[in-house]
Amino acid sequence: MGIPNRFAKRIVENDLIFLDLLYSICRHSLYKVVVNNEDQARRINGMESHIGMDVWSYANPSRPGMVLVPGSLRKIFEKKVIDIGAQFEVQVENIKEAIEKEEKHLAAAAKRSNQTDGVLSFDKIHRYAEVYAYLEELAQKYPTVSVVNAGKSFDGRDIKYLKISTSNFQDSKKPVIMVQSLLHAREWVTLPATLYAIKRLVVEITDRDLVDQIDWIILPIANPDGYEFSHTDARFWRKNRSTGHSMCVGVDLNRNFDYKWGTASSGSACSETFHGPRVFSEPESVVIRNIIQRYQSRMELFIDVHSFGSLVLFGYGDGALPPNALSLNVAGVRMATAIDAVKWPSKPNYRVGNLAMALYEMSGGCSDYVQAVGVPLSYLFELPAYRSSAGINGFLVDPDFIEQAGFETWEGIKAGARFVLQNTRKMH
Fold first, then answer.
1. What tens digit of pLDDT does each residue of 232-274 get?
2. Are 113 and 123 in contact (CB under 8 A)?
3. Does residue 382 carry a catalytic annotation?
4. Where would a tag sit more exposed on the chain, N or C end, judged by fewer CB atoms within 10 A?
5. What are the DSSP calls for 289-357, one per residue?
């Protein structure tokens, strides 16, 4: 069936870019970009808002960037990189083939699942409904657990978190630690980190002091709409699914919080780092804000788990350091060292540092907001990248690494929790 004439003219005049991107959707290519200095890095990373590329990791002189580029824009992208004086190398010619390979590996792992009653397996990436059913099951079986429905996503999905406490959060002397994952939808490997923490705090307790002396908040799926969309429609979807922003859908939730909002992010709705029309414009970021505000007087440690990069990062995204930067660095090093002690030898050691200095400048970040409202220790974790035999380095999930990702991240969380028990807020 053809396009009616009255619509064809409008499409030709106004939507050529959209159709061009749609046409090339299956021919996205992944590039490695090497820059020689900070000026090149700034210019390369600044291309994100202009030519529709998707930055998987930002380039800086100490490490290459990884950029996903639609097929129709490859020549434009390559010319701009050359003009800037940087170098590029195609890592994956057609990303669709890599996605199909991931699907095949995950499906095979799911068939071999060793799931037992009461514990989600760590040989697959669980969907939204599975995770929430599991949370409810835990609340029914264990007196230390309660499920809180904190609000609705843009598309009306529940956003739930676990409260884990031996005193039902009634002991005001106990510190609160919060861990969340999947603020960015495509970062599937972050979910095992929160699920593994739940396992060790509820189902198979290995560190009794951490359960008895700390109240825990675990938010496994911070962006449910985007997460489901990344499973059903677009594997590398990053944002939420809010509409009303011109022709493009979604806001980068990790640019929507109230810390220097809009200063180092994109005002373009089609950008992967679109900060939204206003601070806290998105229901998902409002839910997290409300949790923080409710418990901030007792919250000592906050960890927002992302991928990828093997990093433990603290504020602020504009390069300014909090007054307790030394404590942030010391605790961060302890967490990174604990992870490094058990990580796979093939993975790089974790690096610790300020967000802007170790990664890139950003604004409106969740962990920055949490730090700014007075939580002493607020971090953004970047879990290790996945590198398959085809050379892809990014968000795809290796089934063999799922449980390891949870296990090693938990070792880092434990180290952070023990730092909290050893250092009260009075010391900050």
1. 999 999 999 999 987 889 999 999 999 999 999 989 898 889 9
2. yes
3. yes
4. N
5. HHHHHHHTTTEEEEEEEEESSSEEEES-TTS---TTHHHHHHHHHHHHHHHHTTS-TTSPPPEEEEHHH
